[in-house]
Amino acid sequence: MTGLILENVEKYYGSACAVTDVNLHLPEGKLVCFLGPSGCGKTTLLRMIAGLETLTSGEIRLDGEDISHTPAHQRNFGMVFQSLALFPHMTVGENIAYPLKLCGVGKPEQKARVSELLELIQLQQMVDRPVAKLSGGQRQRVAIARAIASHPKLLLLDEPLSALDAKLRESMQVEIRQLQKRLNITTILVTHDQREAMTMADIVVVLGEHRVQQVGTPIEIYRNPANEFVADFIGSGNIFAATALGNGKVGMPGGEALNVPISDSIVVGSNIKMLVRPEDLQLSLPQTAAANQLAGTVTFIRDIGATIETTVDCSGVSLTALSTPNQCVGLSIGNLVSVTIPAEACRVLSA
Ligand code: ATP
Questions:
Q1: What residues contact residue 213 under an 8 Å CB cut-off, 6+ apart?
Q2: Where does CATH 2.40.50.100 sit in the chain?
Q3: Span from the CA of 43 to the centroid of ligand 1 (angstroms)
Q4: CATH of domain 236-350
Q5: What backbone torsions phi and psi does residue 57 show, to the nearest 5 degrees?
Q6: How close is the Cα of 293 to the center of ligand 1, in Å?
Q7: Best probe residue, ligand 1, of 11, 19, 44, 207 (max atoms within 8 Å of C-beta)
Q8: Rounded Cα–Cα distance for residues 246 and 265 (Å)
Q9: Ligand 1 pocket, mutate which of 9, 42, 52, 53 (most atoms under 8 A from CB)
């Protein structure tokens, strides 16, 4: 099978687990994000793929070949770290040519490849400039050009954008994604930033508590999180306790019943957790209670221009709704309000 396969991969440092029970198939040509909170094992997993860390157990295969014990320098993978690790005393051209020189590529060929890569990253005019005299974004591009110089089979990026300011980071996310698509190079990006993963990835691997929690497209993970951990980590969400009532209904703490898509296998009377995304809640001025409508009091409003976040207390359940100025019904803190929770927007979460 083509692509990268991880089978039962785990890594322990002494008795401490860094990551365990990892089974993944990363298809060729895709950009895959390893996403998760600090310490969940993202970097360790990437370093094992790179050959910079040994596996405690399991196997890594690339296009069918077992590479678990292949030394890093024989894997021909490009890597970019958070620090970028460029040589500050060298010029842009020398930095990009460096891996080619190491592989014994001849001077004329090095020159041709460097100019091809400079064109790709749009820095043709800067070949002789020392990297210390580049902007953050330009340095980023040089690091990527150096990583792909020797036509690697895999590009591994470990939080490469985390040192950049928010605006530059967003434009680099788009730039890297476009470059990756143009080159069709299988890429793994480690990040703890869910917005970055959603922007860039074909496939997101959510890691938490040292294991894979879910694998899916960004939208699958956002819309159908596998469990409470993923629902909480990806995007903002209203997660609240309810009781299964049977017949497609759940009971809210205030006594109201909501119609929701709920599996028949959930035992009537059991305590469950529900997820509703803020953009799915609809606010209106108080009205006679209708199906899937709760009465509440506005406790907080955050108006940031393009969107308005309104938090409403509904009998002890705090729900935040996200609206645009056009949808806004002119609420203030303390106002009574009706909150509609569309049945199809509700997800029952497994623990
Ligand atoms: P971050 O986002 O903070 O970089 P991460 O998800 O990349 O975190 P890892 O760096 O892979 O997490 O670390 C996973 C776990 O393994 C952590 O508990 C960490 O303390 C531990 N760990 C990592 N490297 C070592 C090491 N060389 N020796 C001992 N423990 C380690």
A1: 36, 206, 207, 226, 227, 229, 230
A2: 236-350
A3: 7
A4: 2.40.50.100
A5: -155, 170
A6: 45
A7: 44
A8: 10
A9: 42
* Per-residue pLDDT at 351 exceeds 70: no
3-state helix, strand, coil in the chain (%, to 5): 30, 35, 35
Q: What is the CATH class of 4-232? A: alpha beta
**pTM score:** 0.89
Ligand 1 centre distance from Cα of residue 80 (Å):
18
Digit-coded pLDDT (tens) for 115-141: 888 888 888 888 889 888 888 888 888
pLDDT tens digit string along 17-59?
Answer: 999 999 999 999 999 999 999 999 999 999 999 999 999 999 9
Alpha-helical (H) ranges within 54-134 are 92-102, 107-120
> Whose Cα sits closest to atom 30 in ligand 1?
13
- Under the banding of pLDDT at 50, 70 and 90, the label for residue 160 is confident
In the chain, which residues fall in CATH 3.40.50.300? Answer: 4-232
Provide the token pair at 248: 């497609």
Find the residues whose C-beta lies inside 6 A of ligand 1. Answer: 13, 16, 18, 36, 38-44, 192
Residue showing tokens 């990009």: 96
